[in-house]
Give the backbone structure.
Amino acid sequence: MTRRRHTNFEQLLSREQKGILDTYVQYLRGLRLSRSTVYTYRNFIVFLLLFWKERPLDDLNTNHIQRFVEVVVKRRNYGISTHRQLVSALKHFGDRFTESPLEPAQLKRPRKSRSLPAVLSKEEVIDLLRATYNLKHRTMLALLYSCGLRVSEVLHLKLADIDLDRRQLKIRQSKGRKDRYIPLAESTLPLLTNYAISYKPKNYLFEGHQGKVYSASSVRAFLERSRKRAGIRKRITPHTLRHSYATHLIENGVNLRLVQELLGHSKPETTMVYTHVAKKELLSVQSPLDRALLELRPQDKNVLKQSLSGNLKG
């Protein structure tokens, strides 16, 4: 979800409403939710408090919440993922402020969309890297794909997280507050070494302005330029490289449980989506059209120039 600044909206809250918001945020932090999650949920509750105005929380019931969800989702045109986050934020609100008649269990999240992830072919990945001329950018993209990293993970990599002797990266406290190790591709070692010698990073592997964390929006911008130079028509995001990594691993016969561990997924169901993209059995099935053409080819090499049935009369 794209972050929206909450400052202008928050200043519309009364002192009492700001107190409710602060109490809610402290509750989320006590649950040890990530900073990003707290930020997102906080914004939702700002909208809720503006919607509810100065009325007491004792009157806020499930029907009111459902009406609020309908209004904010339509007005702000939320997608399925953001809608689900909104409901999660409201459930936590109901859990914290038990004086309201709100029943969190009755709040239903919309079902996740079943769309399959976009995936690059192996050839397209190579073309993309070749079309990325900047050494720093190319090294980033190579790590995103060869290690299946989230963009936040590659941007927060520190020099201390790279073990060239053991050929591995350490990902610290990523999604779900989990650490994990990922093997480094041998082919990326010369690239990494060349990059380190040329750029001399001090703390983060890929440093932005004044040594701070590199911007994710900058990654998306140069990735888009490389996509155009490579002549790839698919829409690509940094996460597309992670999807491609997982799909190619499964196509290469890597065990699903190991892929789950490499990706840092908590549930195997999350990893299972890649089996629907990487069905080698389906890819190996010969189309009946190809079969028919092969059978007809000895009779006429120009069969595609003719009608394939007797129904079309030119």
Remarks:
- The chain has a mean pLDDT of 84.
